[in-house]
Amino acid sequence: MSETPFSVRGKRVVVVGAARSGIAAAELLVRRGATVTLTDLREQIDDEERLRAAGVSLELGGHHASTLSAADLVVLSPGVPSQLPAIEAARRAGVPVTGELELASRWLRGRIVAITGTKGKSTTTTLTGRMLEAGGYRVLVGGNIGLALSAQVEASTDETIHVIEASSFQLESAQTFRPWIAVLLNFSPDHLDRHTTVDEYAAAKARVFANQQPTDWAVLNADDPGTLELAAATRAHRLLFSMTGAAREGVVISEDAIVRRTSSGEEALVPLAAVKLLGRHLLADVLAASAVASIVGVDAAAMTKAVEGFTGLEHALEPVAEIGGVRFVNDSKATNIEAARRAIETFGEGVVIVLGGRFKGGDFRDLLPPLVERHGTVVAIGESRPLIREALGFAVSLHEADDMSAAVRCAFASASPGRTVVLAPACASFDMFRDYAERGRVFKQEVRKLQDEWSTTREQ
């Protein structure tokens, strides 16, 4: 007997959280015949007029338990913690609660490539999409970047490959979500301001494999023991990738190329000379994308063309400017300790790191070895300054700044020609900025202001 198609026609659905994903979910649900209420803590949200015109009822200024408990279905935006009192009350009333990723995936017609991990998701997702497009496939890229998955449903066809960046916030509510190819790039503690424990965060990540079958694929980082442990129970085929050659079979570096190694030999995929990304750790993301493209059937020439044209993402080890021989790099997407450590390790002697924001968990002392080895300097910003001072101040040169303008100028004064200043906060941005993107843009604006001032001074 065939399974009954998922339907919300005639049902009362409450969407909690009116950010990008919540708005897309509300509009999708209306198109699918539901009576939809969108609720948010804010008194005003973007696109109010358009949403009302589309038939979405708005309930702003708080989440009311009575509204959620009277629904037939509650859908959570990824940024909404599932333990909120109003949501718990709805569960007690017997109302099903799901997430936007899970909701949208039930209506997708094509195959899914889901990419998760503590760091590198956006780079890998974007590059994977470009490789598949270069190979002639119909591709939609989105999820945690770009378009929300709910905004892609109407464009989904049987031939579409959906390349989805999946965060732990999206995966924790996954129930039927089943990727054809699931990628776990790496695993280290993160988002402990949202997840109660590291184990809870790990369990959310591992849900990317939960519904896979033996006809599916799991692409795993052989250099990361935590990744292999989280995927231990997967039923899918495994394809490992490794920067260190730890995989006897899989996607590895061999001499001057990325290759897929099997028991019968090596197939060259991408020459290393084609990679334009700054930072050795980003090369692991290229390996992961190459592994996915290899499974899909993209040929080496198309992969290489995609890699050659890809210089990285905004806010991910993004070169900004050089002032007086000092290079400035924007890595605002380095929102956890491990990502900041990798950023520091990218650069040499005398690196200056702008660090801080809203603390998400982890241990700033993990940054000591690479900082001490490079005689690095820290400029601390944001709410986490006392934690940074306590963890690092005894061992490295440390300054504090009240805003990004002061941080950029302090960092420049601390750096000598030939050195690098990198924004790698290891924290969330919400104490000072709307999101990591705004933080990165403000950093770049302040660097360019400094560059203009420096040029003017030099000309006088």
List keywords for this structure.
nine-stranded mixed beta sheet, Rossmann fold, Protein-Tyrosine Phosphatase, Chain A, single chain, 34% helix, UDP-N-acetylmuramoyl-L-alanine:D-glutamate ligase, 16 helices, 3 domains
Task: Please give a quick description of this structure.
This protein has 460 residues and is of the alpha/beta class. Helix content is 34%, strand content 22%. Strands 7-8-6-9-10-11-12-13-14 form a 9-stranded mixed β-sheet. It has a 6-stranded mixed β-sheet with strand order 15-16-20-17-18-19, sandwiched between helices.
Would you give an account of this structure?
The protein is an alpha/beta fold. The chain folds into three domains: 12-95, 3-Layer(aba) Sandwich (Rossmann fold); 102-308, Mur-like, catalytic domain (UDP-N-acetylmuramoyl-L-alanine:D-glutamate ligase, 3-Layer(aba) Sandwich); 318-459, Protein-Tyrosine Phosphatase, Chain A. Helix content is 34%, strand content 22%. The protein has 16 helices and 20 strands. The protein has helices spanning 20-31, 48-54, 65-69, 85-92, 100-105, 121-134, 168-171, 198-206, 225-230, 280-296, 300-308, 337-346, 368-373, 385-392, 404-414, 436-459; strands at 12-16, 35-40, 57-60, 73-76, 97-99, 111-116, 139-143, 161-165, 181-184, 217-221, 237-242, 250-254, 257-262, 265-271, 318-323, 326-330, 352-356, 377-381, 397-400, 420-423. It has a nine-stranded mixed beta sheet. A six-stranded mixed beta sheet has the order 15-16-20-17-18-19, sandwiched between helices. A five-stranded parallel beta sheet has the order 3-2-1-4-5. α9 (225-230) links the parallel β10 (217-221) and β11. α6 packs across α10, α6 (121-134) packs across α11 and α15 (404-414) packs across α16. The longest helix is centred in the last third of the chain and has 24 residues, at 436-459. The radius of gyration is 23 Å and the shape is globular. The chain starts with 11 loop residues before the first strand and ends with a helix.
